[in-house]
Amino acid sequence: MAPTFDICIRGTGIVGRTLALLLARERLRVALVPDPAPRSAVATDVRAYALNAASRSLLESLRSWPDAEHATAVKHMQVQGDQDGCVHFDAAPQGVEALAWMVDVPALEERLAQAVRFQPLVEVVDIPVAAPLTVVCEGRASTTRSEFGVHFDVTPYAQYAIATRVRCEHPHAQVARQWFLPQGILAFLPLEGAQGNSVAVVWSVPEERVSALMALPADTFAHELQTASQLALGNIELIAERATWPLQLAKADRWCGAASTNATNGPAARSWVLAGDAAHNVHPLAGQGLNLGLADVAALADVLRTRDYWRSVADLRLLRRYERQRKAALIAMGLATDGLQQLFARPEAPWQALRNWGMKGFEHSGLLKDFVARQAMGMR
């Protein structure tokens, strides 16, 4: 007899696997469907995410947090403007172990995959299966989202992200560094533990520069990074391939709904819901993309866990409660990242003076600066 499932999750990335484990913990039977298309043409995965305390606590509860070598604590953060404006964040004054942790994506995905293999209530299946609820966690390029009739409102930035990894002459000292420059936003994010001298690079560059930068030989590209980073960590050596993707601000118009009987979305589902990048995208300058996705699945799992015993997991009242909660949480982050991107994209002198003045004021703002830091760390 074929197994019956309570929930079908489409997407086996970090967000999808985390949700599957959370739901299985609530004794729900979950079918997990792999992404329909490969995520990247780069042979070596260069991705690393900044995860906050809330995300770490969630993953630790699932026994899926990577070891210290693959989850580097960020003790300090330095943000440099294009003049002399500068903002510093430190973990110690906040009374926390770290501002965030830089986590190797391959290591985290392997921990989650291992946990899924040992969870009998989660079954990885080749194709979508019938279930009362389908959760779409396929990422920004989701095809299932459009099959459910969802409009994905995309505002493209005239920027591309270039990601890679470099080895530096000097140790990173657990400092995350970010430069807001006329030629783009550059981040050096510490890797390989407290004593490491390797960093993950995310460079948001104008669209017209990306092709030329991607075509540069490795040593020439490294020289460009050295110049942009003002030799903060000395000489730089490229140790990974480069990946690139267009940047955008995007949000689905609906995050849940009833499945149409005439839809071409595979086996019957009574209801559907979106989570993670399938529901929203923000600029990576604040490093909050995956934190938002993990907060989505934590909220969805909590709504389903606390439902009345007589309510189905497909009950639209529950799903709309999740939608309202997460849309409200996304507004502030979307406005903040979009506002910063727009502000620093303007090269004119008056705008440079304005943002330089703003950074200096924020650095000495006391309670406001503490509030922003604690929000980014996932602390209330």
From TrEMBL:
Protein's pathway: Cofactor biosynthesis; ubiquinone biosynthesis
PROSITE patterns from the UniProt entry: UBIH
Alphabetic keyword roster: FAD, Flavoprotein, Monooxygenase, Oxidoreductase, Ubiquinone
Span of domain FAD-binding: 129-329
Alphabetical list of InterPro entries matching this protein: FAD-bd, FAD/NAD-bd_sf, Ubi_Hdrlase_CS, UbiH/COQ6, UbiH/COQ6_monooxygenase
Sample GO molecular function, one term: monooxygenase activity
UniProt GO BP: ubiquinone biosynthetic process
Cofactor(s) this protein cannot do without: FAD
PANTHER family the UniProt entry points to: UBIQUINONE BIOSYNTHESIS MONOOXYGENASE COQ6, MITOCHONDRIAL
NCBIfam families: Ubi-OHases (TIGR01988)
Family note: Belongs to the UbiH/COQ6 family.
Protein name: Ubiquinone biosynthesis UbiH/UbiF/VisC/COQ6 family hydroxylase
Lineage: Bacteria, Pseudomonadati, Pseudomonadota, Betaproteobacteria, Burkholderiales
